[in-house]
Every structure is written in structure tokens, then in C-alpha cells.
Amino acid sequence: MIVLIEFHSNRPEIGKSSNIDSWFGRSLPIHHKYKYSYIKEPKFLLYKGKDSIQLAHLLTRPAHSIINQSFDSRLRIDKRRPINGDGFGVGWYDESNPGPDNTPCIFASVTPAWNNQNLARLAEKIRSPLVFAHVRASTSGTLSENNCHPWKYNRLMWMHNGHIQDFNKIKRKLQQSLRDEIFLFVQGNTDSEWAFALFLNQLSDPQAEKFDHHMLKKAMLKTIEQLNIWAEEAGITEPSLLNFAVTDGCSIVCTRYINSRTEEAASLYFSSGTNFKEYKPGHYRMIKADKREDIVLVASEPLTFEKADWLIIPTNTCFVITSKFNVLLFPIKDQYYNADRMRKRQSIVPPAVL
Amino acid sequence: MSRTFNPENPEGLTIPSKSDSFPIQRSVSPTPLLSLNRFPQKQENKPSHTITHGENSVLSLACSDKYLFTGSQGPHIQVWNLITFQQEAVLKGHLGSVLCLTLSKDQKVLFSSSGDCTVRVWDVDILKCLYIIQVCNDVGDLFSVVYCDELDTVYIGCQNTSILRFDLSTKEDHQTHNLPQSCNYSKFFDNIPATSNACEIISSVEKEEIDAKTSAEQENVHRYEVHDCMIYMNSHDGYVYSLLLGENKDGRILLSGSGDGDVKVWSITKNFMELLKVLKGTDAGILTLAIQDGLLFCGAQGGDIKIYDLETYHHIRSLMAHDDDVLALAEGDDCLFSASADGTIKRWNKTFEILNTYKGHTGIILSLTLSPNKSLLISGANDQLIKFWDINLIDDNDNYHETVIPETSDIMLYALKKWILLRTVSGKPKYLEECFRGAKFLKNVFIQLGADSELIPIATGQNPLVFGKFNGINDFRQQHKRLNILVYGHYDVIDADEKKWLTSPFEMTAKDGYLYGRGVTDNKGPMIAAICAVSELQQEKKLKANVSFLIEGEEENGSIGFGKTLEKSKNLIGEVDVILLSNSYWLDDVTPCLTYGLRGVILATIEIFSEESDLHSGMQGGAVSQPLNDMIQVLAKLVSEDNYVLIPGFYNNVRPITSYEEQLYERILESNPSKTSETKEKLMSKWRYPSFTIHKIDVSGPNNVTVIPCKAEASVSMRIVPDQDIDDIVKSFKEYVREIFSELRTKNNIHIEINNKADWWLGDPENQYFKAAEQAIKQEWGVKPLYIREGGSIPAIKLLERKFNAVAIHLPMGQSTDQAHLNNERIRLKNLQAGKRIFKNLISKLSEIEKER
């Protein structure tokens, strides 16, 4: 109850109703005044470890796993519809194959993640040192497996949490800019997949056998920069939420980004340590038995309730996990960079009520 | 304590098989030169001590003159005593891993940084938390903390890539009453779900957090908050793993090493910090930093050490130092140590050559530090061990000049370590040579420590006695004759089954405050302690008595020939007033004891045999006298169902219990409540009543169930007590066995052999010598010792008392769990050190007694 009192003192009245809503199983009518009430928010999770992890430890077993997040998503901006039921996808790299043909495998479905027996069965058996997982709340594109994150292109894998504001206004420009092989590769019709195509287009050779995090980071920043240019040209004033993640199977580059100087991007947390330990059924802790990291987890919402285990990635930051397991945080210093926002606690005021 | 007669260890009496008779082959003498001479041992790369930290990796270390502080993935800081290697205290308060520890220059204050977002500041004298420095911003784990004494400022390296600066002189301006993290509202965590399963969500640290909150309120520890303006955001791109303070032409500098591969140089002054220089790196993160002679050493991922000149910030070279990440560096005198995830520690000289490689850990070495006097290197690893490396043993120069008895190092441990190497197992011909080496070693120890010494031979094939004599100083003011003290002990040991030991039995290993090795407690350890005690008194010119040592080599073998040899060397030994020995153990692990009584023992063999050969029971059974049947009849009549010994007159002379004696037993039971199973009756049965035991029956023939053996042989023993006369008991035992045998209608023959006998011993706890010992023990341990007796036997003690008309005092040094004669024999270092001081004190006290006479 102490928590609740603090909550009230820190949050405007509007938050209270949504909170009470969740207290009573979301059955109360909500009088929302959200600015972005049309935003449906997906969730993603990624894991990179020196050792492989059984997917169940990420997807199904933790009390606040991504599957459980899909129907109890506490950090959703849109409180009206707290269920991410528009399909899901899991992508992983083979643990026993470090060779050049180690391209990711993707399993995606349009059924709700919590309802998918195949996912539960696979998660118990598959082990991987690098996992992307995504639960979808469709913002654009139809409900189809082609539209489920993550997507892959040869060795590269991509997912997106957020949306590109007024994507239709820039879609043609985007497609126009792509090289043929990349334009033709896109199967679905989501803003996220087209963003992936735009990213691939920044790479001189997206089919390359080897990338490094510098190349991936550079392409990622160029992708964002390009989207910003087109948004400005199209006169789009509402911001886009651009939490992207890309990997080549060795390094991971992701962003927590919003093209706004004042508002907060969709949440993104990370946790690093040596062992993601289940200390009792469904409850996990990150163990730190070394200075260095053996495991890095990035997630839209923490997978555990251990506050000290999770650190927020500041808004407008490029987050990199190098192949040597170094975690790097680069502030994205473009026209939306705001050092003051960096200093303040990001989550004091939820973005929805700004 | 001799347990030669222990049925589990009958080797002392058996005839060795042929394979046993080859002497130990050695290619190199384990103890070259004189016993205590040291010479640079390049190969000496075994730890001098090992501490088991518990279940956690050892992440951080800090060492003061007195204590070692260790931090681990668990939240508590452990404090270890550097003399006894035992835990001194536990500093509780942190809620996460303790990632870095550092001491102020005056060693008065300890700083600890943790994964819980706080730095705690501890008073090293009283081992209490002084105050807490916390961060309101979400900075993550605090990987590194350094304290600049001159600026009175701490610098903290964080997970979120920032560096914090906190000026302690202004800390009062930043006091807060908030607990860490309560100031930063988190949408996720502080909005615990309102779902039906909310009650299930209990954080594993929640309870500890609540405890810590309550205790923090109780202990009233001040909390200070690092203000936003003291946070240098994005100091690096990666985690700030390492910070280091230095000085160069730019003045005071702070160096920071990060996972982004860069090292940054910051100019620091009071209330100010500014980036001076970036030493650009590669993708390999910098995990640790060290400065020596104006050079900066950076331990990197992958195993390289990068070296920069701190004046010019020029990269001088990179050493391919290790096979895996370099996690810790420490600067010694004229050398540098590096520790790595590859499990090794390397020692580098000034020209960057490897002087030594230490391989002791089985895991990743995470932390490294040096003792303030730079004589001890300490390493912590994820094998949950802390290891201590004596780096004085190694000489930097290549010329092998020997160093004779360095004053600072502990001679006692050095001598013991070398002595344990010698397998002085008595009663086995293959160890004869080795026993002789052990005796000579001891003789040299005596001579080097200032005593006269010689070997006293017993007979061919038996180990000599070692005699050593320290003469007291000539004090002309002393009116009377100097007191003559004789310390009795033994250098022989029981053999060891290496496979059943955790460490090599003949290589002394130090672990968790204990020394392990065959003989460390029985009896080499206590003897070395006593010898060192007397030698120290002599060096300090405080030895006012003559102290002789008589250390035998056949004690575990029943002290064969001891009595006779004693007779022959009476002149050499001279007069003796008091006999001291330390050859038994405390009753438990905590209460010091004085032993005032031992039982005696008679070990006998009864042999019953027929004139015939072995026979088939189907063919001959019933028609012949059967030796084993007779044996059973005889043995059955020696002892009753309730263990009462049936030998006539056996109990006649057993001394009745006095009320004084009863009091002693009651004190033992009072002070020893943990041993609930012990009753007065049980103790008395063990210590002050006689007993009879049948150890084994051997038969001739193939040991087949259809054979009537022609010979049966039973080993029996009797433990005897005051005032039973050993010879009377032997006599009546023999007579009684013959008598009951003669009553059997048998054609067989009987033969009775007395294999060995040792008389009981009983001291008088009320005499002045025992009282002096009691005082000496009390002054060391702070408690009065318990007066105990022992069920076992030491043959020599009564012999010595009689021969010299002297009084014996028995001071046990080790604990009940020392495992004498068993696998993993050990002695607590603290007990050995205390034992030495008790001997010193006691010998001084005994000299005083003489003065009063």
C-alpha cells in the first residue's frame, strides 16, 4: 500500500484511474485523455549470453516474461487495451554453429503468444546464445505472419518496438530510396519491416558474412536520421517511437529513441551479469559473480521484479552489446538531444500524460 | 598422543612386507642446506595460505596491516585476521554485490562500492559503518571507487557510464533521510501490479532490504546523496570498470578505464574535474589499471596489458600477458602482478619479463591486492577462494644467494613446513632413511636457533632421539641454581594414505586458518612452537632456566628402546626438575585444557595352537581339539557381558574417586554444554577406569569355512589406571589365562606374549607447576583451562618422571578436531601461535617459581 500512496503523490489524477483500473482487473470504464490513445504498444526482449539459454527462461517461465507481459503490460502507454494479442515472433541463432551460414531461425505466429502450445513446447527445448522475442500489438499492417517481428535478412535480424508516425506519408519516399534487392525482399506491409529495409539500405553489403558493431551502429543512426528528415519534409509533427534492435548474431545494436526533445521514448531496460538465476519458480535474479558480463538482457519491461537488476536505457540512446560483451551506451546527439532530459529521472512522469 | 595400540593402526607391530622395505627414493633433497636457510626458490609458486570464502566469488579485496577485507557477489564484506587467517568480523549493510573496496592512506577508513547503488564508508578500527553515500540517479552498479586523501574526495565509476565525484568535506550539505532508490520513483517497480498474483511477487532482496532499513534506522547511519551536478554523465561509452588516482606534470589526475576500450585522464582539483586526455583503445575493454614508476598499465579484455607513459601519454607497448582477460593488476616493489581470467597470476619485472607464474586458483581470478608491506600478494577468484602468496621467498636477482633466517618472517611456520616434507614414519623400514633425515633436520634447527644438539642413537634399525639444550643466561643476581626443564615430544608420525587426503599429506598446506599435513599437530607442530618459544626467550635474553628437548623417533611405534636409551644418556640430559609435553588435544574446539592424567596400556597376544596341521572340518571335526574353539572359551572368561574384567584382583587398586576429582568433572560438563552426549560416567569410563579390549583374532590356514585352523591368535589390550601396578596386572593376566586354559579339556598349547606396555600417568593439578601452566593459558586465551585426562597412553611420560624424579605437565595445543593419526590431520594456526606464546610465558613463570624457593 505504501507503493500506492507514493504513486498518488507522484502522478496526476489521470494516472489514478488507470491504476485502479488494473487493480480491479481492468473492468472499470476509463475516461482517458491520452494524447496517443491510438498507439498500441508491442514489447520486445533480447538476450545475448556467453552460454546458451533455454528459451523458456526468457519466454514462458519468468513471472513477468514477455508472454506474461503480453497480457499484463504495465508500462503500456495505451492503457485502454492492455493486451498484446496480435501475434508474436521469436528469432534465435544456433548455439552449435558459429560458421558463416549461421543465419537466425524465426518462429512467428498470429495467435496470441500465451495461447500458443507450439511456442511453449519449443521454448522448453531450444537453447540459444542470442535470442530476439517480440509480442505484437499491430499498429500497421494486417494480421499476418509476414507482419510479425522479428525479420531476418541473411545473418541480420531486426525488430521494432514503437511506430513510425504517419508512415503512409513517407512510405513512398522510403521505398523509392531502396536498392532493388532490398525493395524486393520486403514481404509484409508494416512500418517496422520497411524500417528494416531502410536500415539494410544503409549497409554497403547487407549480405556480408561479417559485420561489426561500428557498422551496425552507423547504419542504425543513419536510418533514424533519414526517417527524421522525411518526417520533417512531410510536415509530421507528432513524434515517432523508434526502439529498434538489430543483430548479426555477434553484436547487437538497439535504440531507445523518440524524435522529440521533451517526450519520453517507449520504455527500454537492460540488465547484465553472470547468471540469470531462477531462485524460486517463476522468479529470477541477475547474479553478478564477476566484474564482466556473461549475459545481457534488454527488454521493454523488466523480466523480474528486482529493481537493482534493471537499469533504464536513457531516452535517445544507442545501446550496443559488442561481440566481446561490452555494453556501450551512446547518447544520440541530434536535434532532439536534450541533456536535461538525460539528467532527470526518465520515468517520473509517464509519457502518456504529457 | 600415542595411539600405537589403536586397533585401527596396528602397523607399528606388524612385520613389514618386502615391498615396504625399499627406502624412499629422492632425486633432490627436500631440505638442502641447513634446516632454516632460505634461498630463492624460483619454483615456489604455491600459496602460503588459502581461505575458503563461502559460496561466492571473491570480487574485491583491500588489505590493511591488520585485516584483509573481501567483497563478493553476496552483500556482506568479510574481515579476516592476517595472523590467524580466520574471520574477524562481517560488515553488513550492502544489498548487492560488493564490487570494489579501497582504504584511505592512513588505513582508518574503508570504502566499499556495490551493485546496490551505494558506497559505504566504514571505520576500520571499530568495524562499523560510518555513513553511506548514495546516488539518486539511476547509475546502476558502482564498479569502482577511489578515495583521494588530499582532496578528501571519492570518485565512483558506474555502470551507466558516468563518474561520480563526492567531496566528503561538504557531505553535511547533502544529507538525506531517503533510502537509496526510494527517491527515484520507478513506474515499473514502484507500481507493483495489482493483479491477483501480486502477493506472489516477493523480491528475494525485499526481506534483506527491510532488515537493512530497520537496522539503518537503528544504527543511525547518516546518508549523503551525490547531487546531480557531481555526476559526470557519459564519461565513457561503456561501463566504468576501473578508476585510479595518480600524479604527473598535470598535477593530480584520475584515470578511468572502461568497457569501451578507452582510458581517460581527468585533471582533478578540489571541487573540479576536467577531461585532459583520451587514451584511445580498441574494442577490448579496460578492466583494471595500475601505475608504477610513471607508467600506466591497463589490463584489457583478451589478455593484453597496455603500457602508457604518464608524462607524454604515449603508448609504449602492449604485453601479450595472458590467454584471457586481465582482471586485476597490483604494483609491488620493483615488479607488477597481473591476474587473469585464465586462472594465472604473473609477476613482471621492470623490463616486462615474466618473473613468475602463480597457478593456484581453479577459476577466474577477479581481484588482487598486496599487503601494505608488500610481502604478501592476495588473490580472490570465482573458485570462492582467497589465496596468499608469500612474495618475499622469491628473489628478483638471478644470483642465488641464500638468506639466513630473515627476522621478519615466521621461522616457526617455515621450519614446520620443511619438517613436514620429511616422511618420518616410524615402524616401517622403508622410511628409516627419511626418519634419520628428519632427526638431522631437527638437530640443525636446534643448532641454528641457538641450542646445543646431538642425536642419541638407540639401536640399528631404530630412529635416534634428538636432544637439544638451550642454556639459560648467566644472571649473577640469581641466588639459586637455574631450573632445568625438559620438553619431551616426538618427530615420528603415522603413515598417511594420500588418496584419502584432500591435500598432499607430506606437504604442509594452509587453509582457512588451519595448517594441514601429517604431523602438524602430532607432534611436529607443537614441538616447533616450543622450540621457537625457547629460542625467542634466549634471543630476548630472558631465558632464566635451562631448557632441554628430548624428541624421540619411535613414539608412534611404542617408544621402543626409549627407557634403555634414557638410562644410558642420563648424564647428557643432566638434571630435570619439570617435564613439559604437548601431545594431546582439547576436549572440544573452544576451551583450552590441561591434561593431568593418562591411562597406561598393556598389549598382549594370546596364541593357541595344536601339534597338527590345518584340518578339514568334515573329515576331522569333533575328533580333534580345535584351537579357535579353545580361544573363544578363554576370551569369553576374560570379560563379562557388561564389560567387567574378570581377571582376579584387576580392580583392587583402582583409586577411589575424591570429591576434588568429582568437581573437576563437573566443571568440564558445565563448560561444555554442546557435548550433551558426554556424561560424567562416560568421561570417567574413558579416563579413570581400566578397560579390556579384544582387537582381533587371526587364524592359520586358508581362512576357509571348512578348515579347522591349527592356530588362533588373539590381540588384546588392557588400559590401566592409577594405582594399578602394571607388572602385577601382567602377572595376574598371564596366570588367569593359563588357569582358564588348563581347565579346558584340550590337547592344544597356549602361548601368551606381552607385546608392549606403558604405565599410566597422573599429575597433580594442584601443584605449583600446573598452576603456572593454568595462568599462562588463561593469560593467552582469557579463560581458565579445563583439567582433563586422556584415555590413551604415552609410554615415555612416566618413565621420565621416574628417571629424573621430576613433575610432568601436559599442555594440549590443538583442538579435538585436529584429526591426529587420521586423514587430513591439521592444527589451527591460532592455536600454534598461541601455543608458542604459552610456552614462552610458562617457561618464564616456571623460572620465577625457582627463585622463590
UniProtKB/TrEMBL annotation, chain A:
GO terms for molecular function: omega peptidase activity. Residues 53-290 form the Glutamine amidotransferase type-2 domain. GO terms for biological process: glutathione catabolic process. InterPro entries: EgtC-like (IPR026869), Gamma-glu_amide_hydrolase (IPR052373), GATase_2_dom (IPR017932), Ntn_hydrolases_N (IPR029055). The keyword GTP-binding does not apply. Keywords: Glutamine amidotransferase. GO terms for cellular component: cytoplasm; glutathione hydrolase complex. It comes from the Eukaryota. This is Glutamine amidotransferase type-2 domain-containing protein.
Automatic annotation (TrEMBL), chain B:
Gene3D superfamilies: 3.30.70.360, YVTN repeat-like/Quinoprotein amine dehydrogenase, Zn peptidases. The keyword DNA repair does not apply. It comes from the Eukaryota. One of its GO terms (molecular function) is peptidase activity. WD repeats lie at residues 91-125, 233-268, 319-349, 358-392. Keywords: Hydrolase, Metal-binding, Protease, Repeat, WD repeat. GO terms for biological process: glutathione catabolic process; proteolysis. Residues 597-741 form the Peptidase M20 dimerisation domain. Residues 1-24 are annotated as: Disordered. InterPro entries: Bact_exopeptidase_dim_dom (IPR036264), Cyt/Met_Dipeptidase (IPR051458), GSH_degradosome_Dug2 (IPR017149), Peptidase_M20 (IPR002933), Peptidase_M20_dimer (IPR011650), Quinoprotein_ADH-like_sf (IPR011047), WD40/YVTN_repeat-like_dom_sf (IPR015943), WD40_PAC1 (IPR020472). Pfam families: M20_dimer (PF07687), Peptidase_M20 (PF01546), WD40 (PF00400). The keyword Hydrolase applies. PANTHER family: BETA-ALA-HIS DIPEPTIDASE, DI- AND TRIPEPTIDASE DUG2-RELATED. Belongs to the peptidase M20A family. This is Zn-dependent exopeptidase. It comes from Rhizophagus clarus.
